[in-house]
Structure formats: structure tokens, C-alpha cells
Design brief:
Aminopeptidase
């Protein structure tokens, strides 16, 4: 008789999310480029700053003690990343959040955001915000599902961007 392992054993190491290192920069750049190419397409915009990012830009973020740079791995393969800057006033900004297109809709993004929430609470952050394309329904739904709400919109970058906010208090 073959004995089946409990379900939790099968999925024990499916995702890993850890602080990024300099060695991760090429993977972070690849994930960011892919995610923001898709974002650019969905938002129907001509240019987005994330696509101009250099190795040194990512290294600066990793080396910045005010920033948290995380890398998500699935079965050891880099599949997602995010950056969060924590400010002295108890707020934070989430940027450069991306998951490889082939790895989306399987819980990686939610796992990253859950870890960000835990880290923000641990650091006594009262509010986190981010900007995203207001017309990208899938992103707006994703962030609403994580407890964010639209605080405002603007067209300063040539398209409608929504400022989404999440309160931790």
C-alpha cells in the first residue's frame, strides 16, 4: 500500500519570498521589464519609467536602508519582486511590484503582498500607498482584494493613474 503524504507537505516549499541581493538584480530587472511591458500595454501608454531602469538603479534600492526589496521564487525560479520605501512619518510607498506573466494568478502576488503587510505592521507603518493604472481593472481588483482603496487619480504621467492607499490602523 502506498501512503500519500499530507497535502501541506506537497506545497511546503512552493513559494519563497526573501530579501533581494545584488546577485538577484538581473532577475529583478527581467521580472520588472516583463511586468511593466504588460502594464504599458494594458494602460495603453507610450512610456513608463520602470522600463528605463538600470542595474545601478536596482542596486541603489537594494543598498538603501529605507527600502525593502523582495524577490519571490517558485520552485527556486525567480517569479516576482517588489520594492517598498518606508518613510520617517510612518508611511510607505510600494513600487515596482511585478510577477512574471506565466506565474500570475497562482497566489504569488498575494503572498508577496501578505509579507509586505506583515513587514509594514512590524515597522509600525500606519499607511502604505502605490500608484497604478486606473483603467487596468485586473490590478484595481487585485489591490482592492488586498485592502487598498482609491484615494485619488491624476494624469500627470499622460494616463489616468490611481493612488491606492491601505491603512494599517
Amino acid at each position: 500500500m502506498i501512503m500519500a503524504l499530507p497535502l501541506h507537505v506537497y506545497y511546503q516549499n512552493l513559494f519563497q519570498i526573501r530579501p533581494a541581493t545584488e546577485e538577484d538584480i538581473p532577475d529583478i530587472m527581467k521580472i520588472t521589464r516583463e511586468a511593466f511591458m504588460k502594464y504599458k500595454e494594458l494602460a495603453d501608454i507610450e512610456h513608463i519609467d520602470a522600463l528605463d531602469e538600470t542595474y545601478d538603479d536596482v542596486k541603489r534600492d537594494i543598498d538603501n536602508e529605507k527600502k525593502i526589496v523582495l524577490l519571490a521564487l517558485s520552485d527556486g525560479e525567480p517569479v516576482g519582486s517588489v520594492r517598498v520605501e518606508v518613510f520617517p512619518d510612518g508611511t510607505a510607498e510600494l513600487t515596482r511590484f511585478g510577477v512574471k506573466v506565466t506565474s500570475q494568478n497562482n497566489g504569488i502576488g498575494k503572498s508577496i503582498m501578505n509579507l509586505v503587510d506583515r513587514l509594514m505592521i512590524k515597522r509600525n507603518v500606519k499607511r502604505i500607498h502605490l500608484y497604478t493604472g486606473a483603467k487596468i481593472t485586473s490590478l484595481i481588483r487585485f489591490y482592492y482584494g488586498r485592502g487598498f482603496y482609491i484615494d485619488s487619480t491624476d494624469k500627470s504621467r499622460g494616463y489616468i493613474r490611481a493612488k491606492l492607499v491601505k491603512d494599517y490602523e
